[in-house]
Amino acid sequence: MHKLESVVQTQHRNNKNDTPIIEALQVNEAQFVALRRRFHQQPEIGFEEHKTSEEVARLLGEWGYQVHRGLAGTRRGRYLKRGRRQKTPGLRADMDALPMQEMSGKAWASRVDGRFHGCGHDGHTTTLLYAAEYLARTRQFNGTLQLIFQPAEELLYGGRVMLEDGLFDQFPCDAIFGLHNMPGQPLGRVGLRDGAMMASSDTLHIEVKGVGGHGAVPEHTVDATLVACHITLALQSIVSRNITPFEPAVVTVGSIQAGHAPNIINDKVLMKLTVRTLNEQVRETVLQRIHDIAIAQAESF
């Protein structure tokens, strides 16, 4: 895997290395910790981020931002202008949660059954609000600041819907900055690298069609479950044998949906998988190999 090209280590809490910016942010630290926990307790999945979006809009309005509503459903655009410069940077965060159950036992754990901020978008939203409050309070910029709160990142097309709805036609940006939390890293550590920082993410479905029958007479069937298992194993050869070890790639089979009865050989299986890479050529190679392997394995039966 690619290592981070550089790491910026900052000091947190009260010590002699704290900068004026850190000191100014710490004034409201407790407020934003509480805000993040409120978001965490009320998670909303893609395109259902109504309460989250309303809270974001309310706070930004209080801080003097012009709030625009209506793009991509729950998406909100906000901007703040100061000075005469024409530069327009954008700051972006996602808002949606995952459709899964939280089992953390934390006092601020999700209060919504089957909904969980397991990817930390509650933290992303709060981080951007934290920056927005600081910039509105201190006016430490010159130009027009665009804030982009994106819905449905986990659905993989929330950003595309925003673009189709005219995000950059209405709110052009010279550059956009975003971040992603990284659990396990030391507090205050920021990772940077040249090129792509976040991997592409492709979702694929493979439907295996066989010939079903009774488990007592397997010779009269083509076992779709067995075929799917062979495909799953063969797919793991792509990264180790078709991709250079100097380029990262991951192939994950996350779901295999087959039958229910213990004595019936299935005639159909649905496989769901994802591919993640940081290189377009590697991405194309992996996708082509998945196609070729699935067909070849199926034909071998």
Automatic annotation (TrEMBL):
Keywords per UniProt: Hydrolase
NCBIfam families: amidohydrolases
Gene: yxeP_3
Protein name, per record: Amidohydrolase family protein
EC number: 3.-.-.-
Species annotation: Klebsiella grimontii
Cytoplasm recorded as keyword: no
Group of enzyme by EC: hydrolase
Record has Metal-binding as a keyword: no
A Gene Ontology BP annotation from the UniProt entry: diaminopimelate biosynthetic process
GO terms for MF: N-acetyldiaminopimelate deacetylase activity
